[in-house]
Amino acid sequence: MSAPTTPGPTLPAAAPAPTATTASTAPTAPTARRLRGGLLDWRVRFAILSVIWGFSFLLIKVGTEAYAPFQVALGRVLFGALALLTVLLVRREPLPRGLRTWGHLTVAALLLNTAPFSLFAYAELSIPSSLAGICNATSPLWGMALSLVALSEDRPTRRRFAGLGLGFLGVLTVLGAWQGFSGVDAKGTAFALAASLCYPIGWIYVRRTLAGTPGSPVALTGGQLMVSTLQLALVSALFTSAPGSFPLWPTLSVIALGALGTGMALQMQYGLVTEVGPTTAQMVTYFIPVIATTAGVLVLGEQLHWNTPVGAAIVLAGAALTQTRPGARKPA
Predict the structure, then answer these.
(1) I want to staple 72 with a disulfide (CB 3.0 to 4.6 A). Which of 63, 174, 234, 273 is the partner?
(2) For the whole model, what pTM was predicted?
(3) Within a 10 A sphere around the Cβ of 17, how many other Cβ atoms?
C-alpha cells in the first residue's frame, strides 16, 4: 500500500495479505467493496475525510489560544493513539513486536508526528490557519524533489519537473513575492514549510526501513503514535509549564484534532485505500487547503487576498503533475 501525502501521521506499512477464499465462497466484487467500505459510500467518506483534515488547521489555531504548541501536539498524538488503540482492542490485534521495529517506529514518530505537529502548532502562533493548510499542500512537491535523489525507482520526467517548478511558483504567489513578502510572517511560514518537508522525509525513511514489516497499518501507526506521545510528553515537561486551566473550546479542539483528525481519519483513509486504491485516496490532499482556507475565513475571520487562492490553485496543479506516472508502453 503506498501512502498518500496527508497531514495525518499514516504509516505506509504493508497491508495485511488477503484471505484466500474458494470459488464457491468468494464474495462478488461489489459485495467485497461494500464489506471493506462499510455502510457509507466511499465518496461520502472521502468528503468527510477531506473536511476533517481541512479543519485540522483551524483546530490547531484554536488549541494554541490556551496551550503551548508542544502541548497541542502532545494532545493530538495522545488522543489519536487512544483512538487507534481502542480499534486494536476491539479487533484483538497486537501491537508490533521486535526491538528493530520499535527503533524504526521511534524515528518515524519523530519525522511524521512529533516534529511536523509541533512545527505546525508553532507556525500558527503567527500565521493564519489557511496559510498553514496551503503550506501543507507543498508536501508532494518536497516529496518529488527528495524522491529523485533518495529513491532510484522514481525517475525524473519533464512533466514532473514542470510540476515541481509550477508548484513552487504557486508558493511564491501565495507569499506575495513581488511585494517583497510584505505582510507575511517569515518565521511562521518557514515553520509550516519545514513541517511539510518532514512528511516526505519520513515517508522515504519508512519506505526504506519498515516496508514489509509484519502487522496491520493500524497496529504500526498506533505504536508510532504511542512513541510520539512519549517524545512530546518529555519535550513538554522540559520546555513548557503545566496549563493553569483547561478552557472549553481549546480543549475540545485538541481532543477533536487527535481523536478525529489523527484517529478516526486514519481509519477512514485505510478503508479508502483498500476500496478505491491509493491513487484515488491520495486525491484528498488537494481538497485540504481549499477547506482549510474556507474554514479560516468563515469561522476565524481570517483575511483572504486574491493571491492566496490563486497561488493555492497553482500549488495544487503543480503537485498533481508531480504525482503523475508514465503510462505503460503499448506493445509493438
Answers:
(1) 63
(2) 0.81
(3) 6
**Quick one: how far is CA 34 from the chain centroid?**
26
| Cα separation values, 62 from 53, 217, 249, Å | 15, 30, 7
Residue range 240-267: mean pLDDT, rounded: 93
In this structure, are residues 10 and 221 in contact, taking their beta carbons and an 8 Å threshold?
yes
Residue with grid cell 514518530, as numbered in its chain: 109
What amino acid is encoded at 99 in this protein? L
User: Which cell numbers in the block locate residue 235?
Assistant: 519535550
Q: What is the dihedral of CA 264, 265, 271, 277, to 10 degrees?
A: -170
Alpha carbon distance 146, 98 (integer Å): 29
101 grid coordinates: 521495529
Which grid cell is 158? 519533464
The grid coordinates of residue 69 equal 504548541
How confident is the model over 139-181, as pLDDT tens digits? 888 887 887 776 555 566 778 778 778 887 888 888 777 676 6
Is the pLDDT assigned to residue 37 strictly greater than 80?
A: no
Cell 508536501 identifies what position? Answer: 139
Backbone region of residue 175 per phi and psi (left: phi > 0; alpha: psi in -120 to 50; beta: other values)? alpha
Q: Give the Cβ contact number of residue 252 at 10 Å.
A: 14
Taking the CA atoms of 79, 84, 86 and 87 in sequence, report the sign of the dihedral they define: positive
Distance between CA atoms of 52 and 18, rounded to whole angstroms?
29
